[in-house]
What does this fold into?
Amino acid sequence: MQAQKLPHRIVRLEDTDGDGRFDKSTVFADKMMFPEGAMWYDGSLYVGAPPHIWKLTDADGDGVAEKREQWFVGQTLGGCANDMHGPYLGPDGWIYWCKGEFAQATYEQFKGPPLVSRAAHIFRRRPEGGLVEPVLTGGMNNPVEVAFSTSGERFLSGTFFETPAYLKRDGLIHSIYGGVYGKPDNSVHGFPRTGPLMPTMTQMGAAAACGLACLETNGLGPGFAGNLLACQFNMHKVSRHVLVPHEATFTTKDQDFVTSPDVDFHPTDVIEDADGSVLVIDTGGWYKVCCPTSQLHKPDILGGIYRISRIDAHPPADPRGAKLEWTKLDAGQLAALLADERPAVRHRAQAMLAKLGAAAIEPLSQLLKTSTSPAARCMAVWTLTRIPLLAARAAVHPALADADEQVRQAACHSAAAWRDAGATEGLLALLSKNSVPNRRVAAEALGRIGNAAAVPAILTAAAEGHGQSLEHSLIYALIEFDAPAATRLGLSAASPYTRRAALVALDQMPHRSLKMDDVSPLLASTDAPLRDAAWWIVERHPDWSGAVVPQFRSEVFDRKITPAATAMLLGRL
It folds into this structure.
């Protein structure tokens, strides 16, 4: 009904006297389908209003959007408002959004047949349009918000990442390219897998995790930069999550940040403002479907927007750079502003440099060579990533050998976004370095580039293990190469981790060539990685039951079987 009546609107709020409170409102756009996300980018407001994403532009400056374009045409519309959340601008310049609601949709892909999917996804697309790319696939009901670290790592909030049990359900995940996450819903059947479902990073129970922000500053106090703030709709609070590097991913240290005893306080978004304070958006009590704490319609509970500031904070003067003479700054001066302490100034300079294109490449290259600030060098990498020129790709390549791990990580993400074949040498070098996160994203980039000459290096990198996240990216790269003959050489490797990577990749790549005879001898292997991978593969091949029955028979009639082996046998049966 809403899709026909279009009863909603977008309101522009202004603080005209600079006291930190909105005192003027203008209807920017009316007659909208249920708006669920808004992002300002390059002079237009992008609004997620299921099933579409709209690009709204106020061309004459009167505060009203007279130009409306369907930037993305969606295909599904359910009843729980979980079809779409977003959009969100990534540091790479791509626009990201989330798709929930297990309804089927079809998307053209970079290569191969169209993607036909009922699953949940994070999608992304270039601002100028083009093909839609799935970044993540899942069996979760409601992926909500994507937030990014300065090095380009993606984090996702949402619901039903796991089947509810033992205080598990909703939470946060580290979104790694190509991963299949969430509970084992049949909607994920047929997507390439690299082993068991990818893990949830932070467990929240039935929290209805929604709004998410990765803080850029210490405006809230020392140690807050790089933290995640997450809204928990059902729990009436905003939580703080300190990211702790672990192997190729993260764990989190969790604590409450804002709590309320009011059952009608429903925080749905959290935004870091230019002065380092934080805005918390409270939906209030009007929403009454699909959440256990919203079963009563309370239209009189309006919610609000709250600003949270540290009492002893010392915000920067002119936090948005309003006093700078922006139109008089050349490319070199704009590049210098990428090291400014004010995030809003950095991002404005970045946007202007990206629009300058070729003229910005040399100043950005010099910044990468001379700046002592890793954060500024990261900004230079991301600014170059937004320039669609080969010279900009080449300018990023030296950052793959930067002294700072985060700068290298950003450069790997940049190469992955563009499928930059010119970065291959630098990416291959990172596969053998000590940084496990760098290895993971280097493998991701090599897989997206698709040069099967990298298969031996990927197999070698798989030999050391280092956890599911790194193993996933290495195996997924092998799947994307789709080079069975080269990958099969990994089956004779000395390392059980390399052999496992080859096994799984051969089973999951488009041109599958794994045979029952490759797997059946490993069902009783004393190497746990190989044995577990063999069973995981066999479970997906009912036509291979002939290989399984003899193994089951030997274990069932083994009078010396240990309790641990018995438990494992029961699970497999």
